[in-house]
Amino acid sequence: MSTEQRAGWLYADMEIVEKEDALLSPEERMAEAVEPLLFWFQKNARILPWREEPTPYHVWISEIMLQQTRVEAVKDYYRRFLEALPDIQALAQVPEERLLKLWEGLGYYNRARNLKKAAEETVNRYGGELPASYEELVSLPGIGSYTAGAIASIAFGIPVPAVDGNVLRVTARLMADTDDILKQSVKRRTEALLQKIMPRDEAGAFNQALMEIGALVCVPNGAPHCSRCPLEGLCLACRYGKTDVIPVKTPKKARTIEERTIFAVARGSEVLLRKRPEKGLLAGLYELPGASGYLTEQEALDFLGLEEKDAVVLEKLPEARHIFSHVEWRMQGYYISLRDEAQTKAGFFAERETAREAYALPGAFRAYAAYLFDRKS
DNA sequence: AAATCGGGGTG
DNA sequence: CACCCAGATTT
């Protein structure tokens, strides 16, 4: 629609101010949002550990940790991680076992492996400093379009967008856009739109302002707090009362259920562990040995390669379950205390304290690990 | 485009 | 209980 048409409509119906506003193009509407967002962010930015000294390394670590992970969950991991690995060189050299132990419980463990790979590349190709360009950043392992944009804008002041779930939700509501925000075409379109209106000198603050609005005001769960939003008068979803149906997201596929049997095996002061495969779920982490399906006591002994005389105690444990994003484990457990001479090929024995301190054991095993670690025997 | 990859908070 | 989160990578 041309400026003349818009003006014509406006002059024809001066009373209806909403109509004039409804004629803004997405780009114009987004451009109108820049100053209010920057002003709001100045006053409402949370104090977060990674905002104290936003070096490229600090921003990088925080952004990787924050992928699909809430701010509150990240804080303590972030502090502990930086204490252990204060710079890129330390990260490039850390043994993988120690790295995974630092990441234990945070999930998406390939993030940690990719972090180390990228640190090695940074040392080898860029002299140990993260490159100050979006293109080079996005080519590093674990750094996609969002994270490259976040590091580039926040740490280097490069005017590029950083489009995450918050930004997609806020922009979809601002435009009352009913397209599925999970489609990559919508993400690309949003990036292109934001690139056009990006404030050249405040890209970092602007990107963070959009995300901060999404986290604090235009929230993902429950109704947004539109009365506290600096974009209230500009937002079409708010005006049309559609914040409950926007953003549109296609439902995810239902989880598959897997039945497993887990073995909590003790032998004196030792416990039985097993290293998981290097690919797939919980890759490279440690676990209590297990088998698919529900095993009887005899099948359990057979699986472990034990004879009846080896097991001093063989106790069936309560069922436990653990929910991953796309799989649910329903677990039957056995607590087995072995005589000192007993052997098994189902895993390796580690001293209880060593196992606790040195091996990354995911939370999925917590219920049964408690029988080994939190209980005298 | 769809599936994979964790764990925890929230209504 | 279902949904979502400062996503990236593989298939």
Automatic annotation (TrEMBL):
NCBIfam families the UniProt entry points to? mutY (TIGR01084)
Q: Which cofactor does it need?
A: [4Fe-4S] cluster
GO biological-process terms attached to the record? base-excision repair; mismatch repair
Q: Which family does it belong to?
A: Belongs to the Nth/MutY family.
User: What Gene3D superfamilies does the database record attribute to this sequence?
Assistant: Helix-hairpin-Helix base-excision DNA repair enzymes (C-terminal) (1.10.1670.10), Hypothetical protein, domain 2 (1.10.340.30), Nucleoside Triphosphate Pyrophosphohydrolase (3.90.79.10)
Q: How is the cofactor bound?
A: Binds 1 [4Fe-4S] cluster.
Fetch the PROSITE patterns from UniProt.
ENDONUCLEASE_III_2 (PS01155)
CDD domains hit by this protein:
ENDO3c (cd00056), NUDIX_DNA_Glycosylase_C-MutY (cd03431)
Catalytic activity annotation: Hydrolyzes free adenine bases from 7,8-dihydro-8-oxoguanine:adenine mismatched double-stranded DNA, leaving an apurinic site
What SUPFAM superfamilies does UniProt report for this protein, alphabetically? DNA-glycosylase, Nudix
Which InterPro entries does this entry report, sorted A to Z?
A: A/G_AdeGlyc_MutY, DNA_glycosylase, Endonuclease-III-like_CS2, HhH-GPD_domain, HhH_base_excis_C, HhH_motif, MIG/MutY, MutY_C
Question: Which stretches make up the HhH-GPD domain?
Answer: 65-216
Q: What does this protein do?
A: Adenine glycosylase active on G-A mispairs. MutY also corrects error-prone DNA synthesis past GO lesions which are due to the oxidatively damaged form of guanine: 7,8-dihydro-8-oxoguanine (8-oxo-dGTP).
Q: Which residues form a coiled coil?
A: none
> Which GO terms label this protein's molecular function in UniProt?
4 iron, 4 sulfur cluster binding; 8-oxo-7,8-dihydroguanine DNA N-glycosylase activity; adenine/guanine mispair binding; metal ion binding; oxidized purine DNA binding; purine-specific mismatch base pair DNA N-glycosylase activity
EC annotation from Swiss-Prot or TrEMBL: 3.2.2.31
UniProt keywords, alphabetically? 4Fe-4S, DNA damage, DNA repair, Glycosidase, Hydrolase, Iron, Iron-sulfur, Metal-binding
By what name is this protein known?
Answer: Adenine DNA glycosylase
Give the EC class as a word.
Answer: hydrolase
Write down the superkingdom of origin.
Answer: Bacteria
